[in-house]
Design a protein that fits this description.
This protein is of the alpha/beta class and 477 residues long. The protein contains 18 helices and 18 strands. The chain has two domains: 447 residues, TIM Barrel (Alpha-Beta Barrel); 26 residues, no CATH class. It has an eight-stranded parallel β-sheet. A three-stranded antiparallel β-sheet has the order 1-3-2. It has a three-stranded mixed β-sheet with strand order 8-7-18, with helices on one face. Helix 12 crosses helix 17.
């Protein structure tokens, strides 16, 4: 009667088309006039040979060189799970949430004890990421304090491979570590051809703000490009400290830092899978911290997401983290704000969801469970409001009429499950019923829910794969 359903998803824009073009032109100017610092001999040779102006360790890129690299990079990257199924599609404004890396400490969900993160804690967090449905991919979350530092990055990667089927975004200390983790991924995938069809790993690398690369990072960029490993090049500028204090200036520097890595990757192998982005936030001038809960972080993430969509590049976003010390009211408020903002901006591969408390230093299973619950709310909102003859319900309203009710109507039976209901974490009961059920406050309900989820048993790897991974580990050093 009223035509086909009109599909519309909520969207957030923080930059106008004219502002996007201004930031793009400023980024090109920064790379051409100021450039960036590289000392890696092979990268310098490649850059010079391709048309960059190289003066010692300073490299300046002409605008055409940057724009050629943007055009050469694929506009989508697809990741796969352990079964070889293509599950995460980084394209346009689609978004997918996952946790993060390199937490130093671990918060025990039953005792609130804070201690150093260990390799067994990685088993717990990987298991949670496997079972919590709103995490589409995983990271290693913490740095294992119980194993030698030289192999810790590979130990936690092996834990994740063992205890979740989801794609892994990893970072590591050097080229040898990348190779070892890639070799594990190839064994699990069943060879290079199957890996290329649905890559199960993505490497996460960082230039140093402002505008510096150290040699091991360049080694990893070139190796990933040449080996077919999707690469994230993700600076972490801090407004007022390692980047301009103005938000637009910080976005320009962040964009230039990420795109400089894109140029090197495309020189190594045109068409190499590349994911653009930056962790742009502020220095809190009262505490000097790199803030993970600042609203300005979400604002700049949204701006960078729009730049990624302008460039037709996949984007690595940030949300779901907090400066709070516990999964408390501050954490929930900062997480809800950032997760919704990132989804509205279409920030593709969104990291830090539920894994970073205390500005990036603390992992918490309880926090992961809390953020997973908030993501249900975000996803419900992002589903929009379907409009068609069935949802407009004119016949239903006419049938029920003035003064009637809809409780027993077939239309209600068909649609009441369209509503999201929390599974025991967010409470909607009346006060007397809440009291009769034990008067559990939120923190108690979170502990109960976390303990239940931690009982999940991930699908095991085949015995022959486990044996091969164990044999590989014998040669790590």
């Amino acid at each position: 009667m009223f035509g086909p359903e009109l599909t519309f998803r909520p969207r957030l824009s923080v930059l106008s088309p004219a502002q996007i073009e201004q930031i793009h032109q400023a980024t090109l100017e920064l790379l051409e006039r100021t450039g960036f610092q590289v000392t890696h001999p092979r990268a310098l040779e490649m850059l010079h040979g391709a048309g960059a102006r190289v003066d010692g360790k300073r490299v300046r890129l002409p605008a055409w060189m940057v724009e050629n690299a943007i055009r050469a990079a694929p506009s989508r990257v697809v990741l796969g799970n352990r079964k070889g199924e293509r599950t995460v599609f980084l394209e346009g404004d689609k978004y997918w949430y996952g946790p993060s890396v390199d937490c130093i400490d671990y918060l025990d969900p039953m005792t609130d004890e804070r201690r150093r993160f260990t390799s067994d804690d990685c088993r717990v967090t990987a298991t949670l990421a496997d079972v919590l449905p709103n995490y589409s991919w995983v990271m290693t979350i913490g740095m294992a304090d119980d194993v030698p530092p030289d192999i810790a990055d590979r130990v936690v990667a092996r834990q994740v491979f063992t205890y979740t089927e989801k794609p892994l975004v990893f970072c590591c200390k050097d080229l040898r570590s990348v190779r070892d983790i890639y070799d594990m991924a190839l064994v699990i995938a069943g060879g290079e051809e199957k890996f290329r069809q649905a890559p199960t790993i993505v490497h996460y690398s960082e230039p140093i703000s402002p505008l510096v690369y150290y040699d091991p990072a360049v080694d990893k960029i070139l190796y990933c490009a040449e080996s077919g490993i999707p690469l994230i090049n993700f600076p972490a500028p801090q407004g007022g400290s390692t980047a301009p204090a103005t938000f637009a200036g910080e976005v320009v520097q962040a964009s230039a830092e990420s795109l400089s890595g894109l140029v090197m990757a495309q020189l190594a192998r045109p068409g190499a899978s590349f994911i653009y982005g930056a962790f742009s936030t502020i220095m809190d001038m009262r505490t000097t911290i790199f803030s993970y809960g600042a609203p300005e972080m979400s604002l700049m993430t949204a701006a960078m997401a729009q730049m990624a969509q302008h460039y037709r590049l996949p984007f690595f976003g940030t949300a779901g983290c907090t400066d709070a010390k516990f999964p408390d009211a501050q954490a929930a408020a900062e997480v809800a704000f950032s997760c919704l903002a990132s989804a509205l901006a279409g920030a593709n591969l969104i990291h830090d969801a539920g894994s970073w408390l205390d500005h990036g230093s603390l992992a918490s299973p309880g926090f992961m469970v809390l953020v997973n619950e908030i993501l249900y709310m975000v996803n419900q909102f992002m589903g929009g409001l379907p409009v068609n003859d069935e949802t407009l319900a004119l016949d239903v309203m006419d049938r029920v009429g003035p003064g009637g009710h809809y409780l027993a109507d077939d239309h209600t039976v068909r649609h009441f499950k369209d509503v999201w209901y929390s599974k025991g974490l967010f409470d909607r009961t009346i006060y007397q019923l809440w009291q009769s059920h034990g008067a559990k406050r939120f923190e108690e309900r979170l502990a109960v829910r976390t303990a239940k989820v931690m009982q999940h048993k991930p699908a095991p790897l085949p015995d022959d794969v486990l044996k091969e991974l164990a044999a590989m580990a014998q040669h790590w050093s």
